[in-house]
Each structure stands twice: as C-alpha cells, then as structure tokens.
C-alpha cells in the first residue's frame, strides 16, 4: 500500500477497518475484505473500478489497494468523524452534536455527490447502497459518499438496468427491491430515506412509535396525511 512513495508506518485495529499513518504523517483508513468470500472479491474489484475513476469533494477518496495473503485491502482518506449513522444515532453522551445548519450542509453534500455520480461524471453510476452508514464525515463535518462495492454503471442506451437485487432493506426503492428494476431513481429514493433520518434523528429500520408502524418512512407518510409533519422533527 503506497501513496507518493510512502508506506503505512503504524496500524491500529478499528472495528472492520484499520487506521494507518504514512511516513509523511498522512492518516489513512484501510478497509479489509476477505478474498475467501466471492462477495468480498466482487466488491473489491467493483470498488477499485468505480471509485478510482471518480473524484469529487463529496466522494471518499481512494488512495490505493493491496492484496496480502487472504486479505484484500482498500486504502482511503481518513474521515475524522466516522459515519453519519454514528452522529445521528449514537449515544446521547456523544460529543458530536448536529445542529440544523450542519444537518443542512450534510444533506446538500450528499445531494451534490449523487448529482455528480448521476449527471456530471463521465461515468454515470448508480450507487445502490445509499444509507447513513455509507455517508462519512470529515473533520469539518462535510459529507462524503463511501462504499462503492455494489455500484453499477448506467447504460445510457437502456431505460433501466435489470440486475440482481443488492442493497440494504429499508433504503431500497420498491421497484428495485421487488423486480430488480434499477435506475438513478433508486438512489434518489434511498437519499429520501436518509433525508428523513437526518430531520428526525431516528433510524428508519429501528424506529417504531407503536406496533402499527414498521419504520420511520411509514410514520412520516401517516404524519403527512394528518398534516402533522412537524412531529417528525428531531427535538435535539
């Protein structure tokens, strides 16, 4: 694993990732995938192919990759404030507090990243797994989209992509989850779920105000029909 001729000097274990420090002092994050898993191999190749050709302030930067024994390693820029999920759904005593201007900045950052993937990049890409754990925050709380292991290139001559369904329950668009009908709109639907979570400060799949609701999106729809959407807003 090298960047500008340097190599990682120090590593600390951190969940499924590793934090590394290059000789020039640059802090990096290393994602580990197992080569024994077919899914791991696919995601490794897909991630390199996709993100290596994409550069944007709201996409996590890939520095390089390495294959070591049975481990596949992807080297990224280090994101000091980890994931949006941790910031929104972490413990109450967490030092990271998201005020409304910051939430708006995060919301716009994700939107700009998706606009680049869908419209502005030479490669038109459907991410397929937009969710709060795949949005990372840097030291200034700028949002960057990560994890392109499931991403698909858009084929402009076709109206949609028919593909094996992959993603995260609770964030997948209905037409994609049910029939594998994939367009950019699938990412837009996922972005809408993330937007609701940013406003509400609640996890779509874990929030159930009572047994009549199956998640945050379900609850938001009922509140809209009752013209009571203000109840959705995070009191924090």
Automatic annotation (TrEMBL):
<keyword id="KW-0808">Transferase</keyword>
<feature type="domain" description="Protein kinase">
    <location>
        <begin position="1"/>
        <end position="236"/>
    </location>
</feature>
<dbReference type="GO" id="GO:0005524">
    <property type="term" value="F:ATP binding"/>
</dbReference>
<dbReference type="InterPro" id="IPR051824">
    <property type="entry name" value="LRR_Rcpt-Like_S/T_Kinase"/>
</dbReference>
<dbReference type="InterPro" id="IPR011009">
    <property type="entry name" value="Kinase-like_dom_sf"/>
</dbReference>
<dbReference type="InterPro" id="IPR000719">
    <property type="entry name" value="Prot_kinase_dom"/>
</dbReference>
<protein>
    <recommendedName>
        <fullName>Protein kinase domain-containing protein</fullName>
    </recommendedName>
</protein>
<dbReference type="GO" id="GO:0016020">
    <property type="term" value="C:membrane"/>
</dbReference>
<dbReference type="InterPro" id="IPR008271">
    <property type="entry name" value="Ser/Thr_kinase_AS"/>
</dbReference>
<keyword id="KW-1133">Transmembrane helix</keyword>
<dbReference type="GO" id="GO:0004672">
    <property type="term" value="F:protein kinase activity"/>
</dbReference>
<dbReference type="InterPro" id="IPR001245">
    <property type="entry name" value="Ser-Thr/Tyr_kinase_cat_dom"/>
</dbReference>
<dbReference type="Pfam" id="PF07714">
    <property type="entry name" value="PK_Tyr_Ser-Thr"/>
</dbReference>
<feature type="transmembrane region" description="Helical">
    <location>
        <begin position="12"/>
        <end position="30"/>
    </location>
</feature>
<keyword id="KW-0812">Transmembrane</keyword>
<keyword id="KW-0472">Membrane</keyword>
């Amino acid at each position: 694993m090298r960047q500008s001729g340097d190599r990682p000097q120090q590593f600390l274990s951190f969940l499924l990732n590793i934090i590394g420090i290059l000789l020039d002092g640059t802090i990096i994050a290393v994602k580990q995938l197992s080569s024994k898993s077919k899914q791991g191999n696919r995601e490794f190749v897909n991630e390199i192919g996709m993100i290596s050709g994409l550069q944007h302030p709201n996409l996590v930067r890939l520095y390089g990759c390495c294959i070591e024994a049975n481990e596949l390693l992807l080297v990224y820029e280090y994101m000091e404030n980890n994931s949006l999920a941790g910031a929104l759904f972490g413990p109450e005593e967490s030092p990271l507090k998201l005020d409304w201007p910051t939430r708006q900045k995060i919301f716009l950052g994700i939107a700009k990243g998706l606009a680049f993937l869908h419209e502005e990049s030479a490669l038109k890409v459907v991410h397929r797994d937009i969710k709060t754990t795949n949005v990372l925050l840097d030291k200034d709380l700028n949002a960057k989209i990560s994890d392109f292991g499931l991403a698909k290139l858009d084929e402009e001559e076709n109206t949609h992509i028919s593909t094996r369904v992959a993603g995260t329950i609770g964030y997948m668009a209905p037409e994609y989850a049910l029939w594998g009908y994939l367009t950019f709109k699938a990412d837009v639907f996922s972005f809408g779920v993330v937007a609701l979570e940013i406003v509400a400060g609640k996890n779509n799949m874990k929030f159930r105000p009572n047994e009549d609701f199956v998640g945050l999106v379900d609850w938001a729809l009922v509140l809209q029909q009752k013209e009571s959407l203000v109840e959705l807003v995070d009191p924090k």
